[in-house]
Each structure stands twice: as structure tokens, then as C-alpha cells.
Write a structure and sequence with these properties.
heterodimer; A: 221 residues; alpha/beta; five-stranded parallel sheet; B: 364 residues; alpha+beta; five-stranded antiparallel sheet
């Protein structure tokens, strides 16, 4: 079961087999302007097609079927980046360590006060935002990388490895002056203010310049 | 020849006449009482006794000869013997009557030292009470833990609803008597306090002292099965042990593991009551990193819905059971890093299998 409430705030998933607990969590989050979608089992939740719409999930540990930690594990396996807050009435240190290691934002013991809950949810939402921002930026950098010409890419690959214009010119067999032109074009197309900004962006796109002498950037073959 | 037979006997033998004078005192008696034959022969047998028998023995014989009413003769009884050094020890005494060539009445006493028997019995009683204690502590822990969970859920809903109501009142600009708002804060504080108490209770319950040591699982299983079949409930039940040879040693709290085996075997004994040719098999099986113990019976088996929930607290098939035993077993086995499950490979009856980790010398 799930119920989407017609409000404007972030969507929080509530997964707990206890109706009263779910309803009270909903009430608390609603007073803080959030929307909730409620699920009474881990399976129901994992079957939900629009997990990508949520900003975080509150998972109860003790449920019939897959427990909260198992649901968290399966979300990770599916590549979901949804931040998770684990709720438990029955926690121990080992369980908390396991949850946090698997990437849980928080591990809260019931009964949870409103302040505690809202603080954890706010933190989870912050994480969700930065993850989404990062994903957006990455895909944007990828688009810009793909817009470079083969020559420009070759120049970029060598520049982010810290080589001088002169060295790049020698390697590519063209004049340093021409390299200077390519370099300016790369900076403009990538929207970089400086060489260090350019290096940062290629890192963010998931490329490690220490990995090999010649980089294979997205879009180059 | 007869003399040699008497002296080779492991039990003590004493022959006295009707005045209590010792006529025969064999080698086993010398070992038992510390007196040599020379010191005892011709003396009154009460030398070997403790009061009040020591004082009254002559009277016992006289009363018997007068009335023919036997106290020990023809049967036996447990009495206390007295060693030369003054120490006393338990003896099973059996007395027979005989007549010599002159038809005088003689008595022959056979004396069996009970010290070892009693020590073994005491050890078993000690083991049993130790197990009982652990069982009781585990049951309290398990109940506490299950109750804590059942109470935490509604409590957490209470906190949520009251806090949400308070937040709504605040958002509406406090259109309520100020007192109401204040009382709601009290309600939340007190509910959170109850939550803290439950948490403490659970932590307390979880803190059983455990003592791990390296053990031979076969010995633990064997010892426990002996304990489990004491008592009349196990009468007629055929308990078979099928122990794998060359099992690696395991690192366990042996009293806890004994409790698990005991629990499973006793459950089987209960389930078999009223069934034809009841049988239980306890097997040990070697795995790669663990040793498995399988307890199975040929009883009525478990229904599928019970099978699914059998390790949950408060689930029982016994009319007077509270359903805490298997839940404790699971807690114990999981705390050992092992697993416990219903054995589905058996076609009839009920089987349980659990594993305990092998002792790893490199880490242990």
C-alpha cells in the first residue's frame, strides 16, 4: 500500500509493518511540510516503481520478510542512491555499525522524538540533494567532453596530467602556439575558469589522471 | 580357595556371630576401613560404625533374634561407615543370615562403597541446576527482549501522535489553553522516559555472562543426552547418537549449547508422548567452518504455519508452553555466530539443525 499526499514538500518513504507507527511518523512529517508514501513491508517498497521520486526512506529494522537492513542492501545492489534512515525498536551496536557501514544516514532507536526525527530527515534530504547535484554536474561535464574535437580531447588529456604546452606540442607534433589555441578552446567549451578547475571537473566525471599516461575520456575512442 | 575368593571380592565382606563379634573380615574391608584384619577380628563389629548404630547395634541383633523382625537382613540399606582415621563414608549394606555347623546364627554383611556413586549423582544434580539457572536467566532475557519490542512500537506511535498534535497547535497560533500544550510536552517527555527504561531493560536482558572455551562437541552432546533422558518422561524413548568421528574442536559456551541440545531433545520427548516406538536421533556432522548438530524424532512433525514461526517468542504447540524455548535456542546459536533451522530433509517427524563455528587456531 502507499499513499501520496498532495503537498509540496519532499517525498519521504515510510516502511514499517506497524500501522500505528507508520501513521504517527506520517503525522510528524506532515507537520514539517513533507509528503510521505507508506509501505507495510520491504517487498512492497522495493516493488514501488518510482523510488527515484523520493528524497529519503525511513526503514524499520524488524519486519516480516526482508528486514530494514536487507531492504537497504537491496537498494544498494540496485544502484539506488536514496538516503536511508534506519529505525529500530530493537537495536544493538553491531546492527547500527552494519547499517552505517552500508551507508545509512542515521540509526534511530524508537521511540524517536520529533526533533531527532526531523534532524535526521533533513540531513538525509541534504545528502539526496548533493547526490543529485553531483549526478547532474557529472552528466553535464560528460556532455561538454563529448562536444570536444579529437584534437581538443588529446590536448585536455595531457594538460590534466600536468604537462606543459611545450611538452604537449612535442607529443602531438604541432607548434606550442597552436596548442595555446586548442587550450583556450577547451577551457571555453568546458566552462573552466582555470586549469585547476578543469582538472577538478575531469576528476568529478570519474576519471583518474594517475591511472595511465593517456586518458580515455568519455566520448573518445 | 574360598578364602582367596573372599579376599578377591571388590566389595567388603564381614561375618559376625550373634554377639556382634567379627569372625571374617576380607581384604576389601581393610581398604575401606583402614583397619587390618588383626585389629578387627574378635572385636565387636560396631567398631566400624557411627552413632547411633554404633551404640545400638547389639540391641538390633538381640531384637531380631527375639522377634524375627528384620531391619536390614534379607534386604539392604544405605548406612554410614567409619574409617580408622575417624572419617565417615556412605556404604550400601546388605545382610544375609546363615547358620554354622553348631547351628549358631551368623550374619554376613556385604559392603559397597557409595562415595563415587554419590559424587557422580551430585555432579549430575549440579549440572542440572546450572542448566536450570541458565535456562531461567535466558527465559527472562528472551521475554524481556520480546516484550521490549512489543511495547516500543505503540510507545513510539504515542510520541509521534502527541508531538504531531503539539506541532499542529503551534502552527495554528496556539488556539488552545496554554496548559494543554504544556501537558502535551509532559506526555512526550514521559513517553520518551518509558522508552529509555525499556532500552535499559533490554540491555540488561541481553547481558548474559558467557564463558567460551574450546570443546569437543561430541562430548558435550553425549553428556547432554544423558541429562535429557533422566526422568520418567523419557522412558521407552529410543535415543540414538550418531556422532561423526574426527570432528574439529569448537569454541562455545558449553552450558548454553547444552541448553540448546537439552531443549531440542526435551521438545522431541514431549512431542513423542503417546506415540508408538518413539525414537530420537542426535547426530553431529562436520562442515567446513562449522559443525552441525541435528536433532530429529519420529513424532507428529510440525504444521507448516508453526514451522514458519517456530523460533518467534510466544509461539508454542504445547498446551502449557509459553513458547520461549526455541526463541532462546536461536538467540544462543546466533550469539555463537551459528544458524538454527527446521530440518526439512526429514520426511516424517521433526528435525532441527544448528551449527556452531569450528575453533580456528589462528584467531582463537
Amino acid at each position: 500500500m502507499n499513499r501520496l499526499d498532495k503537498m509540496s514538500g519532499e517525498l519521504i518513504f515510510l516502511v514499517d509493518d506497524d500501522d500505528a507507527v507508520r501513521a504517527s511518523l506520517h503525522a510528524l512529517l506532515e507537520t514539517a511540510g513533507y509528503r510521505t508514501a507508506q509501505f507495510e513491508s520491504g517487498i512492497d517498497f522495493l516493488d514501488f516503481p518510482d523510488i527515484g521520486l523520493g528524497a529519503c526512506a525511513l526503514l524499520d529494522v524488524k519486519m516480516p520478510g526482508p528486514d530494514g537492513l536487507e531492504v537497504q542492501r537491496r537498494l544498494n545492489d540496485h544502484g539506488e542512491t536514496l538516503p536511508v534512515v534506519i529505525l529500530t525498536g530493537h537495536g544493538d551496536i553491531a546492527m547500527a555499525v552494519q547499517a552505517i557501514r552500508a551507508g545509512a544516514v542515521d540509526f534511530l532507536e524508537k521511540p524517536v522524538s520529533r526533533d531527532q526525527l526531523l534532524e535526521s530527515v533533513a540531513r538525509a534530504i541534504d545528502i539526496d540533494r548533493s547526490v543529485r547535484r553531483d549526478q547532474r554536474e557529472r552528466s553535464e561535464i560528460g556532455t561538454r567532453l563529448r562536444a570536444l574535437t579529437t584534437r581538443e580531447r588529446q590536448v585536455l588529456e595531457r594538460l590534466v596530467l600536468g604537462r606543459t604546452n611545450k611538452l604537449v606540442a612535442r607529443e602531438l607534433g604541432i607548434s606550442p602556439r597552436t596548442i595555446e589555441v586548442y587550450r583556450r578552446n577547451v577551457m571555453v567549451k568546458m566552462g573552466a575558469d582555470s586549469l585547476s578547475h578543469l582538472v577538478r571537473m575531469t576528476f568529478q566525471a570519474g576519471i583518474d589522471p594517475d591511472d595511465s599516461d593517456t586518458l580515455v575520456l568519455p566520448g573518445s575512442t | 580357595m574360598l578364602r582367596r575368593v573372599v579376599d578377591a571380592a571388590l566389595d567388603g565382606m564381614v561375618v559376625i556371630d550373634s554377639s556382634g563379634t567379627v569372625l571374617l573380615y576380607n581384604a576389601a574391608c581393610e581398604r575401606l576401613f583402614g583397619y587390618s584384619a588383626e585389629e578387627v577380628l574378635g572385636n565387636n563389629v560396631n567398631l566400624l560404625m557411627t552413632p547411633p548404630d554404633r551404640r545400638n547395634h547389639d540391641t538390633y541383633i538381640r531384637n531380631y533374634l527375639r522377634t524375627g523382625k528384620a531391619r536390614v537382613i534379607g534386604t539392604g540399606r544405605d548406612v554410614t561407615g567409619r574409617h580408622k582415621d575417624g572419617a565417615t563414608f556412605p556404604i550400601r549394606l546388605s545382610v544375609g543370615e546363615l547358620h554354622d555347623d553348631t547351628d549358631a546364627t551368623l550374619f554376613i554383611g556385604t559392603l559397597h562403597d557409595l562415595t563415587e556413586t554419590l559424587r557422580t549423582r551430585a555432579r549430575i544434580e549440579e549440572l542440572q541446576s546450572e542448566l536450570m539457572q541458565v535456562a531461567r536467566a535466558s527465559a527472562v532475557g528472551e521475554m524481556g527482549s520480546a516484550l521490549a519490542h512489543e511495547l516500543t512500537q505503540p510507545l513510539s506511535a504515542v510520541v509521534g501522535f502527541v508531538e504531531a498534535s503539539a506541532a499542529l497547535i503551534d502552527q495554528d497560533g496556539g488556539e488552545m489553553p496554554a496548559k494543554v500544550r504544556e501537558y502535551m510536552d509532559h506526555a512526550v517527555t514521559q513517553s520518551l522516559r518509558a522508552g529509555a527504561v525499556i532500552r535499559l531493560l533490554r540491555e540488561f536482558a541481553a547481558k548474559g555472562d558467557t564463558e567460551h572455551s574450546v570443546r569437543d562437541i561430541n562430548v558435550v552432546v553425549e553428556e547432554t543426552c544423558r541429562l535429557a533422558t533422566l526422568g520418567t518422561a523419557a522412558d521407552g524413548v529410543d535415543l540414538k547418537l550418531d556422532l561423526a568421528a574426527d570432528l574439529p574442536p569448537v569454541l562455545i559456551d558449553h552450558v548454553q549449547i547444552q541448553q540448546v541440545v537439552l531443549n531440542l531433545v526435551r521438545n522431541s520427548i514431549d512431542a513423542l508422548s503417546g506415540f508408538e516406538s518413539p525414537a530420537i536421533t542426535v547426530a553431529t556432522v562436520s562442515g567446513r567452518e562449522e559443525v552441525e548438530i541435528v536433532v530429529s524424532d519420529n513424532g507428529p512433525g510440525l504444521s507448516s504455519e508453526v514451522r514458519e514461526r517456530v523460533f518467534e517468542p510466544f509461539v508454542s504447540t504445547k498446551p502449557d508452553g509459553i513458547g520461549i524455548g526455541l526463541s532462546i535456542c536461536r538467540t544462543i546459536i546466533e550469539a555463537h555466530g551459528g544458524k538454527i533451522a527446521v530440518d526439512t530433509s526429514t520426511e516424517r517427524g521433526t528435525g532441527f539443525r544448528f551449527s556452531v563455528p569450528v575453533f580456528d587456531e589462528s584467531t582463537g
